[in-house]
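This follows on from our talk about sequence and fold. Can you supply me with one protein entry, sequence and fold together? Could you add the entry underneath, on a fresh line?
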Amino acid sequence: DWFVPCLKPLSRLQRISNIFSVSVWSAMVIVFLLVTVASWWLAKGVDEVPSYTSFSSSLFNNWAVMVGVSVTEMPRKFTLKLTFLGFVWYCFAMSTVFQTFFTSFLVDPGYQKQLTTLEEILESGMAFGYRNDFDIHYDESSDWRHKELLSKREDCSPEIMCIDRIRETGNYATLSEEWLVQDYTNFINDHSFICPLNDDDTFFILISFYFPKGSFLLEFINRFISSSTESGMIVKMDRDRRYKNKDVPEPGNVFGEYFIFTLGHLSVAFYILLFGHSLSLLLFIGELLYHKKFIKL
């Protein structure tokens, strides 16, 4: 069978940044700037609170509305109140949608697309390899996929080297015997990093016994194989080999029905908070330098 890396969780930061499309983010920035300019312009020349008479104070108050916190003062002028109210409704609608997806993606950001076909392996540009003797399965094929496999594949000798490369890099594919992969994953106590591609490119290996004509062992071997197959002994041995390590969960339990909410789920929120504090610190230092250099002049 072909084996590829199992799907991995998406980056929470990447998932959150894709909640809205680029056009929606751009529209929000444009609306924010337009409302800021409009608020500043409407507050000029009238008896309005100081919180809206300068561009910086208007920008500050509208940013507070956008992030969902209280403003310093409410506007007094009727037209400014209508503008302010409309912007509050707009921000409430957008923040409600954002917070819903934000919480969902913090808990479960989703998973990358799982490779399922040979075409996807070839189109992804992922490196792959297998033993030289496996070329016999593709030498006589006229399929373009098989020809491309023969021209790009790497040599895997021993096979464990390629399986281990999937575990270390998460960006490799290999053709190997299923029993070898199962034994390896049981040995390292980890089934989560490697998954079978599909059943389209599965090759069955037929094993034959050769006996001299009239050999007395022929009937005994035939009877033993038939008895083992009919009794289910072979199936049981295969099942015991697959799951002989009881500490490893079965593949069907990869996506559990519950999860443990830890501090790691909130890492994105702390990164954003750290970015905000860093930006504030830089602006504060810039204001001090500006005051020190230009005010004295």
The chain has three domains: 12-107, 115-253, 263-295. Strands lie at 2-5, 127-130, 154-155, 172-175, 194-196. The chain is about 55% helix and 5% strand. Residues 123 and 156 are 21 Å apart (CA to CA).
